Amino acid sequence: MPFFPNMILQSILLFRLPTHAAVCSMTEFICRVMGGCALYFFTGISDLSYTSIEDSGEIVNALKRSMPLFEKLYHIPVEDIEAVSMPCINIGPWGKDFHKLTERVLKQDLYERTPRIIQYALETIFDRRREED
What we know:
Blueprint: H1 18-33, H2 56-66, H3 78-83, E1 95-96, E2 104-105, H4 107-125
Antiparallel strand pairs: 1-2
Helix pairs in contact: 1-4
């Protein structure tokens, strides 16, 4: 399996953008209104896995030690990714068996919770949140 950077919710806090306050607000919203808690670490691969990297030099050294064909057969532009690193938030339904034939999601999350969380996130980030919640 190729290397993919993991996304940890706390890494968003490093950015000095509206996403910091939005993450705190969304986490509270999810726990209070949705009856659950936010996952701080996404265990699967996502398109967002390559949006942010910290300490590219350390990552390259670790990859060279653990991937014999790194830079020969498999290249990851970690320095470029670090240069354009941006905050990202992966919002989606709870599921099982990511990217497998048996993949499935919780129907209530797909049709009810996730759309509400996305709406809340957009309104919070763009400072247009309605006071209905």
